[in-house]
Amino acid sequence: MAFLSATLDRVKPSPTIAVTTKAAELKAAGRDIIGLGAGEPDFDTPDNIKAAAVAAIAAGKTKYTAVDGIPELKQAICAKFKRDNALDYTPAQVTVGTGGKQVLYNAFMATLNAGDEVIIPAPYWVSYPDMVLLAGGTPVTIEATLAADFKITADQLEAAITPATKWFLFNSPSNPTGAGYSWDELKALTDVLLRHPHVWVMTDDMYEHLAYGNFKFCTPAQVEPRLYDRTLTVNGVSKAYAMTGWRIGYAAGPEMLIKAMRKVQSQSTSNPCSVSQYAAVEALNGTQDFLAPNNALFERRRDLVVDMLNQAPGVVCPRPEGAFYVYPSIAGCIGKTSAAGVLIDNDETFAAALLEETGVAVVFGAAFGLSPNFRVSYATSDAALEEACKRIVGFCKSLN
Ligand SMILES: Cc1ncc(COP(=O)(O)O)c(C=O)c1O
Q1: Do residue 228 and residue 96 come from a single domain?
Q2: Whose CA is closest to atom 7 on ligand 1?
Q3: What is the Cα–Cα distance from 351 to 388, expressed in whole angstroms?
Q4: Recorded GO terms, molecular function (predicted)?
Q5: Residue with CA at minimum distance from ligand 1 atom 14
């Protein structure tokens, strides 16, 4: 009898975490490494949020809480959905978990049976297909190509839907491409879903507040209110509020689904960290003034990275609408050889040679389901970004 579960054979460890760990190890060994792998802001959690956490500790708010969130936080989440997305939810329709990651996982665990299909546009956040597999479902990917600005079309969605489709998983702005769907682009997708009443929408709005230029964020239940009863709107405080380590994510949707997700959480982790929940109340209810300057900073970095990477021979880097990632194609580098003699036959060998020969850590595209590309996280200092891009350009120039 095998000791380890057969389910584990179906999934792989997170490649983004692997790259971050490898970069940290090389750095610790004394190498000059610039990590562009991590998906988290480089600035600190705002002081008002930290102060709320300190006050919660001082007040002894350090015990178990309600399994899926304290009432104050659920209220703050309802107010956020109303304020930012014009969506009406009651606290009974809201669940809070240990990061958006747990919330998504709970939703799959609570709904998927063997054979149930989940449509996932690729490139996707690395965890989506593996979470579906862990929960016993079947991921079905559709390609969002560079030529289509990394967005899927209504026809592609229509063609992917079968009687076994349970969820359509939507993520805009996207990790890893930064692509954001406009209202009209999203409406084209929700029109398809209206024709298929058995399909539910799970929308991962984690990068809602990281939107640049004229791009305006929108979310499925807002664009098509007739989908409200079969939409789970997932969000969190990790990215916009620089709170990745606090581990608070949340979702709102039909009460029956929220209850089922609570049941999963009640038998696994119980409540998310009590202190973090009080910090999240302040994040959502407190000043939002730092969002605009942070966005201005990220937009400037996006432009810096896009402009520099497009100078690299063989690289094409589109300018995305949001998040803090770009996802350049390296189609023009495939088949070439690096200065150290490595044949670049796919994006994994490209990323490995780049790290080995220049000390720049990026995540290869195959991890996200669309190749040949790599993902750059530009949530790091201007100086580090400039130096890293210089090295990438130099590396690509050296290929022959
Ligand atoms: C698209 C997307 N969804 C969800 C998450 C999970 O965020 P967290 O669990 O930190 O709230 C991430 C984090 O990288 C992400 O990129």
Answers
A1: yes
A2: 100
A3: 13
A4: L-aspartate:2-oxoglutarate aminotransferase activity; pyridoxal phosphate binding
A5: 39
